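Example record

One chain of 114 residues, shown exactly as stored in the release files.
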Amino acid sequence: QVQLVESGGGLVQPGGSLRLSCAASGSIFSINVMSWYRQAPGKERELVAAISSGGVTSYPDSVKGRFTISRDNAKNTVYLQMNSLKPEDTAVYYCKSSGYGSYWGQGTQVTVSS
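Predicted structure tokens for this chain:
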């Protein structure tokens, strides 16, 4: 099994930045892809960024150019740098690992408001 713990959420003004972290532990050798998802109230959970074990990244158009996913293999941690935040980025952000199985973190709240 893989355990994931997110941190770094909070309240930020429009145009501001936040960096989320996701620390992985357990059977990390089984992880292939690490992803960030978000879920706003009343909406479905959506993918916002993914990174493969080889470092290939992907983003939906809604965040491309504003969000950057990266991973520090030595620390078993994945980051999501979010810049130029908008009110519509407000959501609970979840980390997910995919490999022999799929695992989710508990989520961290991001609120973008003035």
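Notes: The chain has a mean pLDDT of 94.
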